[in-house]
Amino acid sequence: MAPLQKTYGTVGQQQQQQPSTTPNNEGGVSFSSFLPSWKVITAITITGLLTASTVFALPYHVPPTLSRTLSNGTHEYHPTVIMISLDGTVNDDLDLSITPHLSSIADHGVRAQWLTPSFPPITFPNHWSLVTGLYPESHGIIYNVFYDPVMNDTFNYKDPSHSHDKKWWGGEPIWNTAVRQNRTSGVIMWPGCSTVFDGDLKPTIEVPYNDDMTHEEKMALTLEWLDMPIGERPEFIAVYIPQIDQAGHRYGPYAKQTLDTLHSVDASVGQLLEGLAARHLDDIVNVIVVSDHGMSATSKSRLILYDDELTPNELSMIDRIEGYPLLSIWPVHEEYTEPLYQAFLRLQKVHPEFQVYKRDQIPERYHFQDHVRIPPLLVVPDAGWLMGTHDEYPDLDAPLSPRGTHGYDNLHPESRAIFVASGPFFEKHYGSGSMLKPFWNIEVHNLVADILDIEPAPNNGTLKGRFEKDE
Ligand SMILES: [Zn+2]
């Protein structure tokens, strides 16, 4: 996405964005066409093109915060969205009859055949894509750990004091888009939620990441927030739940322990739905449940030890490797890119189960080329394959770890994420029990903005928050 990348080229500099009017290569829509009619008209007013005769034809301009309130019988509410991420939940798991409450959301609302993660289907890039509507090449969070050659600095998601710095994070998360438009937001542990942006923009309420809070406690806190008075009560709530991903890595995506974890998290979603019903909020609050990516099972039979083929001289040309299970390679010198590329082509003759690209060869459909943080060489193993050296796998008789992983081709069926949602917005636009055609997670920002009745931040989405039904 060249136009947006240029806009967000210097990550962390949240300048006033001028939306691109260049149609994107999805054959999509320009940003100006996203604007609701009153916003277009406001823009026209500002440019002084309004004539007296058109004034009377204008709809009355209602500021978003006053647009409408809803009542549950005792209290007033603004349109409200709760978005929950179940990290690492595989789309096919919704068909295993172990998630009755997620099924209930789909039955009363909508389900996407699947949600396509952005490339690479890794946690931090995709959580940031879900809330900003930007591809990782546009927002700059390209992996969980990455080097920035301009800053000469490394982002590491496990180092909060450093990774929370706004300099890393491009784009605007929907919780700040809301706050900027006088709305309120509350975020529980979603990646990026502890970063404070220019203008002191941050969620109205935020719970930083910690390992101790259970998913039941997160649902209970969400309900507590809904009991706050209007004006203080968050109208956009994001909740991050890591346990299914952790189990998937440890035991594998199809292991009983992983599916038990999913079942238990589903029960806590049920607890939330029960709390909404008890408060008569079914017709007021919209609930969206997503995952960031799927998960593939690993196996010793799908392990490539690349130092069997690459020579010690070739291996010494590698400075650092990022993006596990990808091999995203920074060579010691830029001119080592070609010999390393040739070395992996040679390896491919023995082990064809991966693709190798120089940066400018990375397929367009990945939208993963145009950022200084993307290294010169990218090796993409086939789904479920691991690549490493004998040093990394010293005992081939030992049990393989991890048993599950993700980060492969984002279009592979095992990479698919989940999307289920219910509430008045979905009832109105799609009807109960609708199946939606698959869409990319960069479309979610516009969807949430649409429900909250706020103007979205500039983003890569093209569907304007409207999805096609699969009929
Ligand atoms: Zn994840």
From TrEMBL:
Record's Gene3D superfamilies? 3.30.1360.180, Alkaline Phosphatase, subunit A
* Molecular function, one GO term: nucleoside triphosphate diphosphatase activity
Q: Name one Pfam family in it.
A: Phosphodiest
CDD domains membership: Enpp
**Region Disordered, residue ranges:** 1-27
What is the taxonomic lineage of the source species?
A: Eukaryota, Fungi, Fungi incertae sedis, Mucoromycota, Mucoromycotina
Q: Which SUPFAM superfamilies match?
A: Alkaline phosphatase-like
The protein here is known as Phosphodiest-domain-containing protein
| Organism for this UniProt entry | Lichtheimia ornata
| GO terms (BP aspect) | nucleoside triphosphate metabolic process
